[in-house]
Amino acid sequence: MANKHPCNICVKAFTSSSNLDKHLLTHSGMKLHKCAQCNKSFTQAGDLRRHFLTHSGEKKHACGVCDKSFSQNGNLKTHRLIHSGEKKFNCNKSFSQTGNLMKHMLTHSRVKMHNCTGCNKSFSQAVYLKIHMITLKRSCTNVTSVINHLVKLGV
Fold first, then answer.
1. Domain spanning 61-108, CATH architecture
2. Which run of H or E residues covers position 94?
3. Residues 114 and 124: beta-carbon distance below 8 Å
4. Which of 9, 38, 47, 96 has the highest CB neighbour number within 10 Å of its CB?
5. Would you give the end-to-end CA distance of the chain in angstroms?
6. For each of the chain's 155 residues, which pLDDT tens digit applies?
7. Any residues with CB less than 8 A from the CB of 45 and at least 6 apart, and which?
8. Distance CA 95, CA 12 (A)
9. Other Cβ atoms within 10 Å of 47 Cβ, number
């Protein structure tokens, strides 16, 4: 089944409108599912269930090449790409992980959601705003609010 339901905010597409609706919550900033142990919040209940594995310490998915183990099979599959050298995604640059490709694709889009409140310059990724703040902090007048914004983003 083709991904006929594209997100109008990022480059992802989904097979159903309900999956797209769940995904759109990630862009809303609404995180209704909160971990009782560490207070970290998530947009989807499944993400919270996966997060619980970080507290249990259970890592039943072991790499056959090295001594690393993972709580989730998907993380093991991603890890195995390190050993194989396979790069599944290409854009003149190669990426073994989808998330890294998605972040990179933002550099090609015109979407720049991370703004410096000191000089009004915009960036496609929070990390680029952080670099801007580190290298140009003396020339940007509102450094504190930008740093607070980055902290909220978890950068």
1. 2-Layer Sandwich (3.30)
2. strand 94-95
3. yes
4. 96
5. 36
6. 677 888 887 777 889 998 888 888 888 878 889 999 998 998 888 889 888 888 888 899 999 999 999 888 888 888 888 888 776 655 667 777 777 777 777 766 666 777 777 777 887 777 777 777 777 655 555 555 655 565 566 55
7. 33
8. 16
9. 14
Instruction: Give, in order, the Cα–Cα distances in Å from 146 to each of 64, 112, 127, 131.
Output: 44, 15, 12, 12
Environment class of 134 (CB within 10 Å of its CB; exposed 0-12, middle 13-18, buried 19+): exposed
**What is the phi/psi pair of residue 126, to 5°?**
-60, -35
pTM above 0.90, yes or no: no
Evaluate the CA torsion angle 138, 143, 149, 153 in order and state its sign: positive
Q: Check: CB of residue 68 under 8 Å from CB of residue 81.
A: no
- Domain 5-56 is classified in which CATH homologous superfamily? Classic Zinc Finger (3.30.160.60)
Give residue 82's pLDDT.
80
pLDDT reported for residue 91:
63
Nearest CA among 11, 24, 27, 28 for reference residue 103: 11
